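Onboarding guide, step 5: your first structure request.
Type a short instruction followed by the sequence, for example:

Predict the 3D structure of this protein.
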Amino acid sequence: MSLVKTFNGMGVAPFSLGGQSRWTSMMWLEYLLDRIGGPDVFKAIFDGKPNAWKDPAVIETGTKIQELVSADGFIKGFSSITADSNADQALLYTGKAAMMLHGSWTYGPMKRDGKNFVQDGKLGFVQFPAVAGGKGDPKNGVGNPANYQSISAKASDKEKESAKKFLKDGIMTDTMIDAYINSGSVPIVNGIESKLNTSPDKDFLNFVYDLAKNAPSFQQSWDQALSPTAAEALLNNIDQLFLKSITPQQFAENMNGTLGK
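The system replies with structure tokens like these:
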């Protein structure tokens, strides 16, 4: 909270947030819950265990979110700012906000649109920090730190083989790998350190590559991991939590009535 006071005292919002998009707010809960309770808390939710949403770590996560909102940790009007228009990114590279929690896909647009914000070395990047007394390893990953591909478990064996062939011959080719890297993104390929190190964006690319490669635990974005019904309920309740129209306890109660997956 000391940094929140420092930045507010300078007339700069501590964090940019595209709260109208809701999934951007979700990233805060994903990371905080991991850092406070460790990955097993959400695994219990995903597995549909009774009362999993009522875990004390969920309540503490919601409490910390609302403390941050009350302390003006997020830019004023965050609930009307959209991520899809890259408005939250613009607040960062124009100096109106000091920090932003987001996915690695924001690097390319900020390099393109940020008027040399990236090129001049004004963008820093760090892993989400540990929480004092928390159980989560600060190396754990959640959400979408880098690109990934998946194949449905419901696909037939023939369909799975076709998908694997597409990944091998369509996604993991040298041409596609180079295209990913040139756009400021990390492709889903091991052993590409030499390629990353030849890029002008090598510092960021290696950061993302190591983050994904070295994570002891990785959790998929909650709105992708849960069923569509549970995911929509989650996003709606997260919105209310950030607006402080429900308490952390009510958030847990509301979510406890949804299916885990």
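Each response can be followed by summary notes, for example: The chain has a mean pLDDT of 94.
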